[in-house]
């Protein structure tokens, strides 16, 4: 593979991705903007990125602390896992299309679409009258929040060189240092003051659009500046007659690939979490049919993505050649990236990382703490958020070290080892008699290991892509995160959905067995039994044993993480093609993708700060 033979050269160097003729309009537009940045514009843009990150981080902490009560208010606490899977499926299928929208139409347009979907999602959630409406609203919310997340990372990749990228990519994570500790307080305060969770959802439909306005203003003004300088690209996708525009959209967005990928993920992942609740379980005909069709579509997907390239390579003639010319000339998944050892290893690693995460730290660890450890809502939330806090601190520290050393690989290896060790210790201390400080220590260790491998792995994946594919590579990396999350949620939901009812039926006193369904479906019913009563002992035992099963599976998922971390290439970041052009954080990038000599006072070197007026 290419990164084995030339460890400091990206695949893009060999494939000619730096050729402007191969760039789509949105990429050309951000390159033009990067050459037109002013001091004020770039400061305002990053201020807005940080502000939106704070809003979404706080929103996540508030909502997570209330989710079990929302679903319990609909008498369906067990739907927590299903909602997480719905989110995971939408998250998985939205990222590549959103990256495509950003590449074809521009970063500004993609940001606007994401903000609109996010706002609509929260409006629908705040007004939902049942769990089905609430779950349906997750489609809009997940699409918007996921789009916003990837676009923030793409924007940072557009405006930084590789040596600064790891540090700057932690910017959206910085708010976790604060919001981790105040989210549950705000959520609890809203519940107490209003008696309802609805305002805790509805207020974000107002706050986030306001936080987005500075970035929107900065992008719009610098687009105008680029046009005045004569460097803005001509937008071709929406030119011509209506039929021609439709053909352009099909070709440039790879609509066929989007449909195949979205359908395959939905048909495979959703049945995985609801199978246990359906008559016949995994033997249910609908479940088997959906998974089978999804698997077939997933096999067809790469064939579709290779179709245009296949036609050109083998000289297909006639009508078929014309058809293949418009199938996937701009594939959703750049297939040459899959030949990169670093790209493949990074994507596999992060997939199993999040499978393990959703089997351990989230979503049922919170319920375990409240039922087995008898912690109140605020204390349980604090413990579950230790991971976010410690991983954020860890990622910042490691990113600074990466900036100084220009290396990333061995931080991934060490992080994978610490993550595995933390999960192993978490399994050891899962009993109700173990020290609470030991559980807290496990969360710190897991979080520190996660922070050490997450950001550097993303950096390695981005380093393996050229400028044409940096958004696609970022999207694919974040997509497999969602796939891992969905798979982890599906497994945890299946284990929890099968384990808890069976164990409650086995352990509850005879007189209380009739309440097993109510106890399983509503956490407030489980908490209503006093500690020390036969019912509460049976409930705690059921939760504890099921949690042990989840943690055992999570530890097994760490083996591929350790293996893939070793297979990633140890790039020398300052000697590679940077994947951007123009003036960015860290220096000026030439047309060849290489950094120019950084002179004292360079306006885009954060060491000397901004000088351009």
UniProtKB/TrEMBL annotation:
Main localization of the protein described in the UniProt heading: membrane
Disordered: region residues: 1-22
Membrane topology: Multi-pass membrane protein
GO molecular function: siderophore-iron transmembrane transporter activity
UniProt-listed Gene3D superfamilies: MFS general substrate transporter like domains
Keywords of the record: Ion transport, Membrane, Transmembrane, Transmembrane helix, Transport
UniProt-annotated location(s): Membrane
Pfam families per UniProt: MFS_1
Spans traversing the lipid bilayer: 44-70, 199-220, 258-281, 287-304, 343-366, 386-404, 411-429, 435-455, 475-496, 550-568
Keyword Cytoplasm: no
All copies of domain Major facilitator superfamily (MFS) profile, residue ranges: 45-572
GO cellular component: plasma membrane
Family: Belongs to the major facilitator superfamily.
Name used for this protein in its record: Major facilitator superfamily (MFS) profile domain-containing protein
Source species taxonomy: Eukaryota, Fungi, Dikarya, Ascomycota, Pezizomycotina
């Amino acid at each position: 593979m290419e990164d084995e033979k030339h460890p400091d050269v990206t695949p893009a160097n060999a494939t000619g991705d730096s050729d402007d003729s191969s760039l789509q309009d949105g990429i050309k537009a951000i390159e033009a903007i990067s050459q037109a940045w002013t001091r004020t514009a770039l400061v305002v843009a990053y201020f807005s990125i940080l502000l939106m990150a704070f809003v979404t981080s706080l929103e996540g902490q508030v909502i997570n602390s209330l989710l079990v009560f929302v679903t319990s208010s609909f008498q369906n606490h067990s739907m927590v896992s299903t909602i997480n899977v719905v989110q995971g499926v939408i998250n998985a299928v939205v990222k590549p299309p959103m990256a495509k929208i950003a590449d074809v139409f521009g970063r500004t347009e993609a940001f606007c679409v994401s903000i609109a979907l996010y706002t609509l999602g929260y409006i629908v959630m705040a007004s939902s009258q049942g769990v089905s409406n609430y779950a349906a609203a997750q489609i809009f919310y997940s699409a918007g929040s996921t789009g916003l997340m990837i676009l923030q990372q793409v924007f940072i990749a557009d405006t930084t060189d590789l040596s600064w990228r790891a540090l700057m990519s932690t910017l959206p994570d910085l708010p976790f240092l604060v919001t981790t500790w105040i989210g549950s307080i705000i959520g609890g305060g809203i519940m107490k003051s209003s008696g309802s969770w609805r305002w805790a959802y509805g207020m974000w439909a107002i706050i986030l659009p306001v936080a987005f306005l500075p970035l929107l203003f900065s992008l719009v003004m610098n687009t105008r500046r680029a046009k005045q300088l004569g460097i803005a690209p001509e937008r071709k996708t929406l030119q011509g007659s209506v039929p021609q525009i439709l053909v352009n959209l099909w070709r440039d967005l790879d609509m066929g690939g989007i449909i195949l990928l979205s359908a395959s993920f939905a048909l495979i992942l959703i049945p995985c979490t609801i199978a246990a609740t359906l008559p016949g379980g995994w033997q249910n005909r609908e479940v088997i049919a959906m998974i089978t069709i999804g698997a077939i579509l997933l096999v067809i997907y790469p064939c579709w993505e290779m179709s245009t390239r296949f036609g050109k390579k083998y000289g297909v003639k006639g009508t078929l050649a014309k058809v293949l010319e418009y199938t996937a000339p701009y594939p959703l998944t750049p297939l040459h990236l899959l030949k990169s050892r670093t790209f493949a290893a990074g994507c596999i690693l992060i997939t199993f990382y999040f499978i393990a995460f959703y089997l351990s730290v989230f979503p049922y660890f919170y319920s375990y703490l409240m039922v087995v450890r008898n912690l109140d809502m605020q204390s349980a939330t604090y413990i579950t958020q230790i991971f976010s806090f410690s991983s954020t601190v860890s990622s910042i520290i490691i990113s600074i070290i990466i900036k100084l050393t220009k290396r990333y690989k061995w931080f991934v290896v060490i992080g994978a080892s610490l993550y595995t060790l933390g999960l192993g210790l978490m399994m050891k201390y899962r009993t109700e008699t173990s020290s609470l400080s030991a559980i807290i220590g496990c969360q710190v260790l897991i979080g520190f290991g996660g922070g050490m491998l997450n950001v550097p792995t993303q950096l390695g994946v981005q380093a393996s892509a050229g400028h044409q594919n940096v958004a696609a590579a970022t999207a694919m990396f974040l997509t497999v995160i969602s796939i891992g999350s969905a798979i982890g949620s599906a497994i945890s939901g299946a284990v929890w959905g099968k384990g808890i009812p069976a164990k409650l039926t086995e352990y509850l006193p005879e007189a209380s067995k009739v309440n097993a369904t109510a106890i399983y479906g509503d956490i407030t019913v489980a908490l209503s039994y006093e500690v020390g009563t036969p019912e509460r002992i049976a409930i705690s035992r059921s939760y504890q044993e099921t949690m042990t099963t989840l943690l055992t599976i999570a530890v097994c998922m760490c083996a591929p993480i350790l293996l893939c971390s070793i297979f990633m290439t140890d790039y020398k970041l300052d000697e590679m093609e940077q994947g951007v052009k123009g003036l960015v954080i860290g220096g000026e990038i030439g047309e060849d993708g290489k950094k120019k000599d950084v002179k004292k006072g360079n306006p885009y070197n954060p060491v000397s700060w901004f000088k351009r007026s």
